Amino acid sequence: MNIRLSRSIVGEAEAEAVSRIILEDGYLGMGNETRLFEADLAAWLGVGPSQVISVNSGTAALHLAVEAVAALSGHKGGPPPEVLVPSLTFVASFQAISAAGCVPVACDVLPHTGTIDLEDAAQRLSPHTVAIMPVHYASNPWQLEQTHAFAHEHGLRVVEDAAHAFGCRHHGRKIGSFGDLVCFSFDGIKNITSGEGGCVVAFDPEAARLMADARLLSVQNDSAQRFSGSRSWDPDVLRQGWRYHMSNIMAAIGRVQLTRLDAEFIPARRRLAALYAEELSDLPGLTLLEQDTDDFIVPHILPVRILHDRKEAVRAALAAQGIPAGIHYKPNHLLAFFGGGRLSLPVTEQLYRELLTLPLHPGLNETDVKNVCTVLRQAVRS
Ligand SMILES: *Cc1c(COP(=O)(O)O)cnc(C)c1O
């Protein structure tokens, strides 16, 4: 079988948009196209255009967001600020926190969703905790309201790692249309792509201003200058900044992708995921992750739990039929740079032994999914 785990879904329209920038516009850097992508994203989410800060990766979005909340927390001197984060996430979440000069405090997750366990997180609060970073694992914004309530109760900011969750809705509202700081990734395989890229949606104008400058080396108000095709020749710089802005080329791809989201990508991902759920329900030895029936989920990845220590055998059986399966993720608290397993997080470690990610992207069809499920059912039963 020639099935990929994930892939970019780009074609003629994206190629034409990029060649328009190269052949007609001629300005490849951050300019009018980037401004238009931010405006399109804002319109799609139903927020103001100045609330969307585009950057060149989802990791950059998380880094700037954590840095902004740390700067605004008034935390000065002494031990570094701490951010609560589930260990079951892409290492980008942890690296972004430490890049911002903060300590990622690894928390355990819930067994049925893989999302942060707020009771465990509560045990890990300290006087230095400034934020919580919920990760919408497998596009699931589970307990997002409780997470905000938890943050409110303990005086924390909420930086959502919504890299998996572009297009999702929680209790009727789009992810990125409410909250504090919401970070998206547009890397090649996410729900929409701009080649690489990402954005922060900010519900705090002060943080938005800090991040808009920080992505351009913290040159004050440089975003507005570039969007109008000029530069500041007498700027000032008050703090550390980064070279994280999004180019016109990336934005051109992203704008086309956004027009394909509602009619093409969302229905395709949801249809394939529903078919997986149908084919794999009631299969002893395999469980699907749970979802809130009031949420509208646009799945970026499709992890399932393979029980009874059978994961590696099942993975090998799939591989033998040319079906790739992934592992999302090796828990961060087991990585040498983030503690190397000094800490024990039992549920996260259990899920790490069980979770296997099945192929999912809009380039697959129903037959592909059925074929994967046939092999999978056999492997799980044997
Ligand atoms: C993709 C991803 C990121 C980082 O996004 P990039 O655009 O690849 O830098 C962060 N967190 C999670 C959970 C992701 O899946």
Features of this protein?
2 domains, single chain, 12 helices, globular, Aspartate Aminotransferase, domain 2, 382 residues, Aspartate Aminotransferase, domain 1, alpha/beta
Describe it.
With 382 residues, the chain is α/β, with parallel strands linked by helices. The chain folds into two domains: 244 residues, Type I PLP-dependent aspartate aminotransferase-like (Major domain) (Aspartate Aminotransferase, domain 2, 3-Layer(aba) Sandwich); 121 residues, Aspartate Aminotransferase, domain 1 (Alpha-Beta Complex). Helices cover 40% and strands 13% of the residues. The chain is built from twelve helices and twelve strands. The strands form three sheets. It has a seven-stranded mixed sheet, with helices on both faces. Helix 3 packs across helix 4, helix 9 crosses helix 12 and helix 10 crosses helix 12. The longest helix is centred in the C-terminal third of the chain and has 33 residues. The structure holds pyridoxal-5'-phosphate. Pyridoxal-5'-phosphate binds next to helix 3 and helix 4.
Tell me which CATH architecture of the largest domain applies here.
3-Layer(aba) Sandwich
N-to-C series of helices and strands: HHEHEHEHEHEEEEEHHHEEHHEH
The residue-averaged pLDDT reads: 96
CATH-assigned homologous superfamily of the largest domain: Type I PLP-dependent aspartate aminotransferase-like (Major domain)
Number of helices: 12
Rounded radius of gyration (Å): 21 Å
> How is the CATH topology of the largest domain named?
Aspartate Aminotransferase, domain 2
Largest sheet: number of strands, sense, barrel closure: 7 strands, mixed
Oligomer: single chain
